[in-house]
Amino acid sequence: MKNIYKLLSICLLTTCYLFLSACSSSKEPISKQGFLLDTVIQITLYDTKDESLLDESFAVCEKYEQLLSRTIETSDVSRINEANGKPVTVSDETISLIQKSLTYSQLSDGAFDITIAPLSSLWDFKDKKTIPDSHALDEARALVDYHTIQINGNTVTLSNPKASIDLGAIAKGYIADKIKEYLVSQNVKSGLINLGGNVLTIGTKPDGSAWNIGIQKPFDEQNAAITSVHLSDESVVTSGVYERYFKQNGIIYHHILDAQTGYPYQNGLLGVTIISKESVDGDALSTTCFALGLQKGMELIQSLPDVDAIFITDDYQLHDTREAKSKS
Fold first, then answer.
1. Contact at 8 Å (CB) between 120 and 136?
2. Distances from the Cα of 78 to the Cαs of 67, 148, 172, 294, in angstroms?
3. What global pTM score does this model have?
4. pLDDT tens-digit series, residues 136-155
């Protein structure tokens, strides 16, 4: 068991594109780390010694993973995908998240689309690391269309029986918000929720100052920061080409896929970081803005209240909407 947790600690350091600055405090925090949501997660609380809160937070995470994961056969998402176009009754939480997803699909004119599953399932960035057959990609692209999702009360129907959904681009943010909701209800006022790089802060540091969240420099082997942000009671989420990728013939193939082509986006971006109140919005917007590209992504964020973004282009330049908003 010690070896397992040693491995998890190494994974947390090497795979998280966000990392946290040290927090100086006379109080020792309590923390729990584990493997859920196909990643290493860590929850740290600074103003309590009640470790049952950590256990319950992990239980909240596991509950929603069981509902929302495409790879768990009994989940709501799997039941929708396996229904061959028949109506499926799902939980209130699943309906809420699908509706939220559709809001971002409409906002982005389809750049964000949870019916990406037929396409994303063809790509393997862990083991095979090969480019899918072009014919298979064409067939899968034809199935990506968020308009096929029909909601009636708690019932979800895919009007195209071959369609399928994947909430991977938004679920971690939603789950982080649910964990925070639970902890705040238990009077926790200072903490950090890190779901594989989706970082959600609770309140401030114990001394009342803002958290300092570092944003990883893309492809840096030492996980060095390219910049950092100061925030309180907010979320930071990044989508980047360096999270899951392989290189072939000098071309980087990453996990953020363009449904129009079937291939990863090649738009000059290395990463997009979203700063928002709720992590579910940060999760969806980081993918959405990456898909839209620098200009349209900046325009979208500038149109939204209480949301900011940092775009990293392939020349390692930072484009911060906070600067643009301050000039307008």
1. no
2. 9, 16, 17, 34
3. 0.90
4. 999 999 999 999 999 999 99
